[in-house]
Write a structure and sequence with these properties.
single chain; about 350 residues; alpha/beta; 434 Repressor (Amino-terminal Domain); Rossmann fold; 3 domains; six-stranded parallel beta sheet; six-stranded mixed beta sheet; 12 strands; elongated
Length: about 350
C-alpha cells in the first residue's frame, strides 16, 4: 500500500511538505513546481490519503450525519438527494442512517455519529419527542444541528419544514368551494409538528368559511396498530365508511390517501364521482394512480438543499441567529377531486 512517505521519497521532499500540499495548506516557501510534482506523483502512484490523518490536519471530518425515520419512505427518498447535492457542493459527504421510528435507535445513531466526529447533524425527529434531553445537550454544546421536515417548538434550533398549515388550509378550502361541507380527515395519533400543523390547517379552513367541523369525521389512527402509512389510510377509510356521511376526504399524506382509495374501491365507490380525495406530499407515484391523486406538493429536494446549507452556515458560525424556514406548498389538482355528489 502506497503511503505519504513513498510520495515524499519519490519527489525528494519531506513528508510535511507533501502533507501541506495535498491538504492544500498555504505555504509560500513551497514552489509551484514542487506542488505540481507532488500532485503528479501522488496520482501516478495511486496514492489514497488516510482520511483519519487528513481529518486531523483539517480539524474536521467534512461529513454530515443524517438520520431519517424510515429508509423506505418515498418522502425522504426525495429529501436525501437534496441534502447530498448541497453538501457535496460545499465539500461535505453525508452518512445516512435511519431510526425505524424507535427513539432508542435515534439516540444510538446520534451517539455513534458523535463518536465518529461528524461536523454536524441533520435529523427528522421522531414522533412524541422522547429525545428532547439529547437534543438539548447537543444545543448546549453548540453542536451544529438542523431539524428537517419536523420541528420541536420547545427547542430553539435551526430547522426547515413545509408550511403544512397553509397547505392543508388551501386543500380543504378548495373542497369547500366545490360544495363539500362534510369533509373527512385521516391522520395519525402522534405528538409531532407535521400532524399538528396539518390538523390546524384543516380546522382553519372550516373556521374561515364559518362552518362547523364534525369531529366524528376526523379519523385518528394509532401508528402502532398499522403496518405502514398505506395501512393507516386503508384502516381509517374502512372506519369512515361505516358512517357514510361525507363526500370528500383529506389525508395527512399521500400514502394515507392511497390506502384510503384502496378501501373506497373495495366498497365499489367511485372517485371522485362519489368521494373526492386529496393527499399531502405529492409523491412521484401520485400522478400515476387511477384516478391520479390531487395532493399538496412539498418541495422535498429544496428542503434537503436548504437543510444542508443551514448546517454548513451553522458550522461556520455556531453562535449565529437560528434559522427557521417554512417552505411554501402548492395544491396540485388531479382527477381525484370533483364537485360534491356523495354516496350513491
Amino acid at each position: 500500500m502506497i503511503t505519504i512517505k513513498d510520495v515524499a521519497k519519490k519527489v525528494d521532499v519531506s513528508v510535511s511538505t507533501v502533507s501541506q500540499v495535498l491538504n492544500k495548506k498555504e505555504n509560500p516557501f513551497i514552489s509551484q513546481a514542487t506542488k505540481k510534482a507532488i500532485f503528479q506523483t501522488a496520482k501516478k502512484l495511486n496514492y489514497i490519503p488516510s482520511r483519519i490523518a487528513r481529518d486531523l490536519v483539517r480539524g474536521a471530518t467534512m461529513v454530515f450525519g443524517v438520520i431519517i425515520p424510515d429508509v423506505r419512505s418515498p418522502f425522504f427518498a426525495e429529501v436525501v438527494p437534496g441534502i447530498e447535492e448541497s453538501a457535496s457542493e460545499s465539500g461535505y459527504d453525508i452518512v445516512l442512517s435511519y431510526s425505524a421510528g424507535d427513539f432508542r435507535k435515534e439516540r444510538k445513531h446520534i451517539r455513534l455519529f458523535m463518536e465518529r466526529k461528524v461536523d454536524g447533524l441533520i435529523i427528522a425527529p421522531l414522533k412524541n419527542n422522547q429525545n428532547i434531553p439529547v437534543f438539548n445537550d447537543l444545543l448546549q454544546q453548540k453542536f451544529p444541528l438542523v431539524f428537517i421536515d419536523r420541528y420541536i417548538p420547545e427547542l430553539e434550533t435551526d430547522f426547515v419544514a413545509s408550511d403544512l398549515k397553509q397547505g392543508a388550509y388551501e386543500a380543504v378550502s378548495h373542497l369547500i368551494k366545490l360544495g363539500h361541507d362534510k369533509i373527512a380527515y385521516i391522520t395519525e395519533d402522534a405528538n409531532i409538528s407535521t400532524a399538528k400543523d396539518v390538523l390546524e390547517g384543516y380546522k382553519m379552513a372550516f373556521s374561515k368559511n364559518n362552518m362547523t367541523i364534525n369531529r366524528e369525521l376526523i379519523e385518528t389512527a394509532n401508528p402502532e396498530s398499522a403496518s405502514d402509512d398505506f395501512d393507516i389510510g386503508y384502516k381509517g377509510m374502512k372506519k369512515l365508511l361505516q358512517k357514510k356521511n361525507f363526500s370528500a376526504v383529506f389525508c395527512m399524506g399521500d400514502a394515507f390517501a392511497i390506502g384510503a382509495i384502496k378501501a373506497l374501491k373495495e366498497a365499489k365507490l367511485r372517485i371522485p364521482e362519489n368521494i373526492s380525495v386529496i393527499g399531502m406530499d405529492n409523491l412521484d407515484v401520485s400522478s400515476y394512480l387511477t384516478p391520479s391523486l390531487a395532493s399538496v406538493a412539498q418541495d422535498k429536494i429544496q428542503m434537503g438543499k436548504i437543510a444542508s446549507e443551514i448546517l454548513t452556515e451553522r458550522i461556520k458560525n455556531p453562535k449565529g441567529k437560528k434559522k427557521q424556514v417554512f417552505l411554501k406548498t402548492n395544491l396540485v389538482l388531479r382527477e381525484s377531486v370533483g364537485s360534491r355528489k356523495g354516496f350513491s
